[in-house]
Every structure is written in structure tokens, then in C-alpha cells.
Amino acid sequence: MADPATIQGEVAAGFEAVRAAFAANFERPGDFAEVGAAVAVYRRGACVVDLRGGFADRARTRPWARDTLVNVWSATKGATAAAVARLVDQGRIAYGQLVAEVWPDFAQAGKASVTIGQVMSHQAGLPGFAEPTRLEEIYDWAGCIARLERQAPAWPPGTLTSYHAMTFGFLAGEIVRRVSGLSPGAFIAREIAGPLGADIHVGLPEALEPRVAETLGPKRPPTPPDFEQPDYARSALRNPATGRQRPGQRPGAGAALCGPGERGRP
Fold this sequence. Notes:
Blueprint: E1 8-11, H1 16-25, E2 36-43, E3 46-54, E4 70-71, H2 76-89, H3 99-102, H4 116-120, H5 141-150, H6 168-180, H7 184-196, E5 200-202, H8 231-238, E6 256-258
Antiparallel strand pairs: 1-3, 2-3, 4-6, 5-6
Helix pairs in contact: 2-6, 2-7
């Protein structure tokens, strides 16, 4: 538990309640007490909240620093979507364009009419992997791309929307790779993170590992939703099954990471 007095950072006048709410997270009883965190809020282009507190490791020996990196999980989709938007802005692709025009093998199994816009809006009908997939196979980019090429859409593309939890990065990322010749991480580094000075990485350089906060799993398994879900929605979350960090896995391996808000930076 962090002493509220040790919360570091600044808030602009009128945003003191954010600091109080942030500090309160560390005072929660039981399983829900915060270990370490940071928060930044921008309003009309100005940073009005920039706070951090607690620890970046399970042993609570490493204070959360201004440049601590964290795994942002599905927020990586935003970075990948920005990469696609960058290509659209450059006139190299269009949202109404067929995916198969830049990725010919994608046209298999009834996907010839899928547009880039449908992929980006979770309407492509590929919310999860249909073939049984182990968690470690997610690290095989070419293997996952081949799975998605073979897979038939779960609904007529463009007629439904369902969150593409585990497939969005591969679908959008392969579009980026086919058009730019760069991996999504390399493209984001060159076209977005580099020019903006943004501390975000898709595929973390080994030299930055000491800055990464450990990923701590929940003390109690989350309760699954009690409402009925279609099979395609369940597949997005259960194939592969994800959970706590596996023994020996580097924190944040293969994922996008970014630090807290910094004044003067996006």
C-alpha cells in the first residue's frame, strides 16, 4: 500500500479531486488495493494531471518512476489503428478498399469482399481463432496469419460487429506489413512514436526491460459474465485462453508498452 503522501506528480488547479481519487486506489481494502500506477490527463492539448505512486514490482522494492513502462494490453489496438490511419493519410490505402488487394491470400474462405474499414471496425467476422490455438502460438506471426487466411468469417462481413480481441492486431498489423514492408512495431516506431517522441513500443528493446513494471495477476479469478454469448464472441476471449503471466515470461513480452504522461509530450 502506498502512503498517499508519497503520490508524486502534479495536478492543475481544479483537478485536485483526481489526485484524491488516484490516492484512494492505494487505500482500498483486500484484493483491490493498487500496487503501483500512473495516470495522465490532457485537456485541450495541455497536461492537467500527471501522477504516479506505489511500486513497479511484486516485492515492492522498486518505486513507480516517471518513466516506468507498462503493458497496455488491448490499448495496442489504438496504436495499430493509428498506423493504418497513417497509411490512409499518406494515400497508400483507403478504408473502402478490399483487404485482398493488399493481402491476396486473405481472400480465402469467403473473405474476398472484406474491406479494410470492416477490419478496423471489428466487422470482418474473425473475432477469434476458429482453430484450436495455444497461448504460445500467438508469438508465431506467420502461423497466426495463415490461420486467419484459412478461416471463414463467422457472419457475413459488414453485417455485425463483435470485438476482435485476439485477432485485431494480426489483421490490421498484416495490412500495415503488406503495404509498408515493415512490421507493425517498426512502422509505429518510425512513423508515429519517433516523430512524436512517444514512449510506446510494440516489441520492446531488451535495453528497456529494467523500466518495465511486473504484471501481477488477480488474487481471485474474475467472475465470467452471466449473460449468454454467441460462440463467436466466446472464441474471441477463450481461444487461446489467457491468464496470469507464465513462469519465465518477460513482463510485457511482445506487447505495446508506454510510460506515464510527460509534459510537452503527447
